[in-house]
Amino acid sequence: MRPILAALAALALASPAAAWQAGTDGALCTLTHEQAGLDIRLTHDPGPPLWTITITAPAPWPEAPIFSIAFLGGAELTISTDRQTLSPDGLSLTVTDRGFGNVLAGLSGNTTAHFRLGDAEWTASLAGAAPEVAAFAACNTTPSV
């Protein structure tokens, strides 16, 4: 890990975690979390259905073929994909899929999530996430289609 990324990751772990928050944004169900410059946003459109996770970091993500999330501290699980996209400025990484069962299980059953792409790794606390993940999973807004 690059030294600046290691320092930022350590800061993220040392800083108090903001609360996980389930909600809605129009027809989308949302789950958000912000921690030391790391913003995590999941959406679910019950219409298609379509799920997304976007992780916005304080430094750009590198170009790399595989993105992974390692969930640690309970029901440990690592998932990976090659279907990630980066925003034009490289700060936001998004994965879109038709199902997120493993992501939701990882978020609700563990204490930390490690997001990795190439040599960039960011860590988020999952403290307090489980009830908000349950509310997000149960969200049933009016589908967009």
Walk me through what this model shows.
- The protein is an alpha+beta fold and 145 residues long.
- The protein is 21% helix and 41% strand.
- It has helices at residues 3-14, 101-108, 129-138; strands at 21-25, 28-35, 38-45, 50-56, 67-72, 77-81, 85-86, 92-97, 112-117, 120-125.
- Residues 1-17 have low confidence and may be disordered.
Short description:
With 145 residues, the protein is α+β, with helices and mostly antiparallel strands. The protein has helices spanning 3-14, 101-108, 129-138, and strands at residues 21-25, 28-35, 38-45, 50-56, 67-72, 77-81, 85-86, 92-97, 112-117, 120-125.
Please write out the topology.
Layout: H1 3-14, E1 21-25, E2 28-35, E3 38-45, E4 50-56, E5 67-72, E6 77-81, E7 85-86, E8 92-97, H2 101-108, E9 112-117, E10 120-125, H3 129-138
Antiparallel strand pairs: 1-2, 2-3, 3-4, 4-8, 5-6, 5-9, 7-8, 9-10
